[in-house]
Amino acid sequence: MRFLLALLLSGVVLSASADHAVILMYHHVDENTPASTSVRPEQFRRQLDYIQENGFVVMPLKELLDAIYGGGEVPENAVAITFDDAYESVHRVALPELVSRAMPFTVFVATKAVERGYDGSMSWQDLAELADSGLATFGAHSISHEHLLRGSETGVTDDWTKRVSAEIDHSAAVLKQKFAELFVPAFAYPFGEYSPALQALVEARNYYGLAQQSGALGASTATTEIPRFPMAQSYDSLERLAMALNTRPLPVADVQAGQMFIADISAAPQELRFTLTADGPYRREQLACYSSTGEALALTREAAQFTVALPPFRAGRNKVNCTAPSTERGAEFFWYARQWVLADDEGRWLKY
């Protein structure tokens, strides 16, 4: 482990392929906001310095996504920087640091908080100053930032479809009106919660759908299930940043995961199954899977099929991460993450 961390931090850029990329996700950049969604300003500066000093190419989000999915040119070591919720510290703290390094970034805006001047949110003037930097673009994050899956526990109804469609369409329309060509056709799911029904609404609008589970993306990544590495105080060390930046998508297939949105605990899956061929540049025999708490999960293999024993689910978001080391580069990992959302007996689930 010490060798791995030393290698990651040595300034050696390990990711040489141009068929994948990594997206980083931030919320607050502040000292006095919730640790679970915050990176301290000094650590944010260190992260940007690491990115800049180690040969990573920060791309505008739309340009990166269009290149990945359109077969375009993707620079080696490509990364995009995103912020969810349009918190004021992005304007006050993050903007000067990004401008000084000429790094493009995207802010996903829940428009109600801005329109009503909620404490801790940017104003439209703040967002306009981001736009004036020439580095910012903007994507939709709903109107209300509520749990959009609520109301679809027992099935999709016309009322649910209308309500959630309005959350997507109104927030996007406001951003298009204010920022025109700086609008990115992408929707970041509030709380990172999504379901096949919500994905279908996003796909029908030809939007990309951005999630909050970790992992890299490639051309085979679903366009409405794009992973991002969350950056927060428990996960913001330079070691973890280096690991994230040197990640590639693990090409699992034939995934059997049960329902993604679970209305009743009795329907929670007991296992996750997928196939992973032996012809990739990864060490399949060293595949390991972990719960969101870091617990190593029992893993069995039969030929190319793997079965992961899932832990008991709790109300809210439940995630499993599976990784395999590269055969080509000592500090590079292939990564696959899966998420489920479980409603409790009253149809509620956890917030941050």
UniProtKB/TrEMBL annotation:
Keywords: Signal. Residues 77-309 form the NodB homology domain. CDD domains: CE4_DAC_u4_5s. Its main location: secreted. One of its GO terms (biological process) is carbohydrate metabolic process. InterPro entries: Glyco_hydro/deAcase_b/a-brl (IPR011330), NODB_dom (IPR002509), Polysacch_Deacetylase (IPR051398). It is found in: Secreted. GO terms for molecular function: hydrolase activity, acting on carbon-nitrogen (but not peptide) bonds. Pfam families: Polysacc_deac_1. Residues 1-21 form the signal peptide. PROSITE patterns: NODB. GO terms for cellular component: extracellular region. This is Polysaccharide deacetylase family protein. It comes from Sediminihaliea albiluteola.
